[in-house]
Amino acid sequence: MSELKLKILELLKEDARRTPDLIATMLGVAEDDVIAAIKEMEEDHIILKYATIVNWSKVDEDKVTALIEVQITPERGRGFDRVAERIYLYPEVKTVYLMSGGYDLLVEIEGHSLREIASFVSSKLATLEPVLNTKTHFILKKYKQDGVIFEDHEGDHRMMISP
Amino acid sequence: MIKREPLTLEPHGGRKRRTSMQDYLSPLVRAIPPSGIRRFFDLVAGSKDVISLGVGEPDFVTPWHVREACVYSLEQGRTSYTPNSGIPELREAIAEYLYSRFNLKYEPTNQIIVTVGGSEGIDLALRALIEPGDEVLVPEPSYISYAPIAAITGGKPVGVETYAKDRFKLTAESLAKHITPRSKVLILCYPNNPTGAIMTYDDLLPIARLVEEHDLLVISDEIYAELTYEGQHVSFASLPGMKDRTLLVSGFSKAFAMTGWRMGYLCGHPELIAAMLKIHQYTVMCAPVMGQVAALEALRNGMEEMAAMVESYNRRRRLVVKGFRDIGLSCHEPYGTFYAFPSIESTGLTSEEFATRLLAEQKVAAVPGNVFGLGGEGFVRCSYATSVSLLTEALERIDRFVRSLNR
Q1: Residues B270, B177: one domain?
Q2: Yes or no, beta carbons of A163 and B59 under 8 Å apart
Q3: Lowest CB count within 10 Å: A34, A144, B123, B351, which one?
Q4: Is the per-residue pLDDT at B32 higher than 60?
Q5: Angle CA(B79)–CA(B81)–CA(B87) in degrees, nearest 5?
Q6: Which of the listed residues B275, B301, B327 is the one where a domain comes to its end?
Q7: Is the pTM of this model over 0.90?
Q8: What's the ipTM?
Q9: B227-262: buried (b, 16+ CB within 10 Å) or exposed (e) per residue?
């Protein structure tokens, strides 16, 4: 991958709303090159989506997130992929990773209440034939996500004017 | 019997009675004018919701691994004095760093002092070298500390103006005009605060010839060395014949985002360094041990993070320089530091008027160029060590302000 594309990704990761014009200025390149590179990365599905990181604990809405360790029996010929697909197609599932170590899939699931998540696990996830067992961990508090600290206490302590 | 001296009848040994506290002060200190930057600071401190482009330090917090190393050393009880010139491992690390980055060879045992910030290095060098009447050449616009410290030692600071047309580089031509038989020390500060100017090898060479010809010493403040965005920084000490004539002042503040730690170092000829170590040992004894531990960690494991910070400044540098030019303020390309030094001459205002009104009308703080001495009038210093979103907002406000003037 070109160095320009990597630098563009870095700048968009910091703030997805940066315009090609601003990015071009910051990198000292032509705006057209930035537009072309972004378009290419979108077409190649390198850039999948421009999303917002939300601190839901500040939003007056009940939201419960759980991480579920799932052990499964891989399928002959297709390994874990098909089982993973059957799990990630549920809209309440936000993330699915194949993991090394003591279990196979790590599934992040979001719901409105403990009960809703419990019911998803017992009725939908655990009943899938290849699923051997599950371990559900509820997230109590988010400190940092995607490099963003939720309650940053470091702040700017600098004096307004210094020599 | 011991014969006593008769008591003098005159009180105070005959001299005039001191009537005010001012009379107790050394005339050299009394003569130092109040700092222009200080006055502006007071003005800004009273305003709210200001975006400040007046900050002379990184907007990064010291990298966590450096802070953590310090915390760990405190837990381990490392709270004692260190050798006067600094802990040996740190001096060795500084020597290795200077060699690998700038091709400078200093002996850690007798050519390096770890100082309390670069500032102490400047003070030590000037105090050890200057006797009353010696002239100290200071290219201006300049960082505000050199002339006052030179004056306290009894020296005479001599400003050498630099110009936007030369991209604020010091030229041999203008330097030569200010050299007299009393000239002893030339202070160089490149990359330059406040102009962002740098000096390449070819720029420095004619200066080195003059230094040799007129038998001068150079105090080279290279605190911003790592913040160079065009080519590699060239240390003045690395020029032919200049190592023994140079006192290199540097530190960790700017490159490693460690301003508040006050960690710097001073390097030079062993005989000069020995003299400066005398002052250092009687005044501060040694730099704080916790800062030294942190500085060592920064040198050992901090280069990657430093490179990322430099890249980040460079991106913002391009943003503000283009921003000023789009507004219609001419701005020479600052290839170093984290300052841009746009000209505000086209507005018809003085630096002070521009900065004061910009603060009052648009709540953006920038430092008026005249506080930095000769050649600073007509410019403002804008630090871009601030987030991209704040810089963008500040540029919009400056644009609004400049347009309101043209109405």
Answers
A1: yes
A2: no
A3: A144
A4: yes
A5: 100
A6: B301
A7: yes
A8: 0.87
A9: bbbeeebbbbbbbeebbebbbbbbbbbbbbbbbebb
